[in-house]
From TrEMBL:
Domain of life per record: Bacteria
Keywords, ordered alphabetically: Metal-binding, Oxidoreductase, Zinc
Organism of origin: Paenibacillus oceani
Essential cofactor(s): Zn(2+)
UniProt keyword Oxidoreductase present: yes
Transmembrane intervals: none
Protein name: Zinc-binding dehydrogenase
Family: Belongs to the zinc-containing alcohol dehydrogenase family.
Length: 326
C-alpha cells in the first residue's frame, strides 16, 4: 500500500517521501491524516542519530538507525476498520500514535498518511474536537503524567526545569492541582506562553534558587535532562519531596540514590504512554484546563517537512509547537 511520510533519511536529513505500508489487517484502522505534531525534543534526538529506539541511546557499533519515519502522533478521519476492530467506525475523528511502515529501520512511525494503525494505538476524540488541539496527544500526556506523578498539597512549591512543551504541560497540570509553579527556562518567547499564574524564570538572567526567595520546594520536574540544575535546587527541597525526571539523559542518566535519601526524596521516571493516561489527557483538554492550541507557534504543509526541520535546527528558541498539515 502506498503512503507518504516524513523520513529521516540519514543523520540531519529529513524528507517528505513516498513509502510502502503493509496492507491493513483485521486489527488495523486506516486513517486519512489531517495534522500531526512534531515532538521537537524526542524527534531531534533521532534526527541527530542519538537514539536507536525509545529510551535507548545510540552507541558505536549499533546498527545505523536510518532511514526511519519520524514521530508518533497525529489526528485524522477513519477511512477503514479491520473486521476484528470494535467501537471505531469510518468517518470518526481519532488520534493515532504509531502506525505501520515497511522498509525502514523501525516498522512503525508517526508522520505518515494514510496511516495503517493497530487499533490499540487509536483513541476516539470528543465530538467536534479540533484536530490541532489533540494531534500532540502523546507528548501532552507526557507533560500531564509528569504533573500528576508527585504528591501535591495545594500551596506546595513546584519547580519545572525546561520551558518546552513537556515543561509547559507539566506546569499547567501542577497549577491545576493547586501548586505554586515556577518554570525555569532560557527562552523569553517560550516563557511568554506560560499562564499568568505561573512564574517564568529566565535562568540566564536570574539564578534559579534566588528566584524562589527562600521558599521550600515540594516538587521538581526535570523535563530536559538537566541534573546539574536539580542538584542546585536540592538544598531548597523539603523533606519527603519529589523529583520527576522526564528528560532524555542518554548514557549520563546516573542518580546517586544516597544523595536523595537524606531528604527522603521520591524519584519518578515517567516514560511513554498508557491508555488510561491518554484518556485522562483527552478529558483534561476537553475540560479546558490543559491548553494545547495556544502553544502552536508554527504550521507547515507536510510536504515541506524538510523546511520545518531546517527551522527547528536553526531556531530552537522559536520552535515550540510545530504542526504538519496533510
Amino acid at each position: 500500500m502506498r503512503a507518504y511520510a516524513v523520513v529521516f533519511t540519514d543523520k540531519g536529513k529529513a524528507a517528505y517521501n513516498e513509502v510502502q505500508v503493509p496492507e491493513p489487517g483485521d486489527h488495523d484502522v486506516v486513517i486519512d491524516v489531517e495534522c500531526s505534531w512534531i515532538s521537537t525534543g524526542t524527534e531531534s534526538s533521532y534526527f541527530r542519530g542519538e537514539r536507536i529506539r525509545g529510551e535507548t541511546p545510540y552507541k558505536p557499533g549499533d546498527p545505523w538507525p536510518f532511514p526511519i519515519v519520524a514521530g508518533y502522533q497525529k489526528v485524522g478521519i477513519v477511512r477503514q476498520v479491520g473486521s476484528a476492530v470494535q467501537g471505531i467506525v469510518p468517518g470518526e475523528r481519532v488520534f493515532a500514535a504509531l502506525s505501520k511502515v515497511s522498509g525502514m529501520f523501525e516498522p512503525y512511525g508517526g508522520h505518515i498518511h494514510p496511516a495503517v494503525t493497530p487499533a490499540g494505538q487509536i483513541w476516539k476524540l470528543p465530538q467536534g474536537a479540533s484536530p490541532e488541539a489533540y494531534c500532540g496527544l502523546v507528548l501532552t500526556q507526557v507533560g500531564y503524567n509528569c504533573g500528576m506523578r508527585p504528591a501535591v498539597t495545594p500551596g506546595d512549591v513546584a519547580v519545572v526545569i525546561g520551558d518546552g512543551l513537556v515543561g509547559q504541560w507539566a506546569a499547567q497540570t501542577l497549577l491545576h492541582r493547586g501548586a505554586e509553579v515556577f518554570v525555569l527556562g532560557r527562552h523569553d518567547d517560550r516563557l511568554a506562553h506560560l499562564p499568568p499564574q505561573i512564574r517564568g524564570v529566565h535562568t540566564r538572567r536570574t539564578d534559579a534558587v534566588s528566584a524562589l526567595e527562600g521558599r521550600k520546594v515540594a516538587v521538581v520536574v526535570d523535563s530536559v535532562g538537566d541534573m546539574d540544575t536539580f542538584y542546585a535546587l536540592q538544598p531548597s527541597m523539603k523533606r519527603d519531596s519529589h523529583l520527576v525526571s522526564a528528560g532524555f539523559l542518554g548514557e549520563k542518566g546516573l542518580v546517586d540514590i544516597q544523595k536523595l535519601r537524606g531528604q527522603e526524596i521520591t524519584l519518578h521516571t515517567p516514560s511513554g504512554w498508557t491508555g488510561k493516561r491518554m484518556e485522562e489527557t483527552i478529558q483534561a483538554i476537553a475540560d479546558g484546563w490543559l491548553h494545547t492550541s495556544p502553544l502552536i507557534t508554527h504550521r507547515y504543509p507536510a510536504d515541506r517537512a524538510a523546511e520545518a526541520w531546517q527551522f527547528i535546527q536553526q531556531s530552537k528558541s522559536g520552535a515550540l509547537g510545530i504542526v504538519l498539515n496533510w
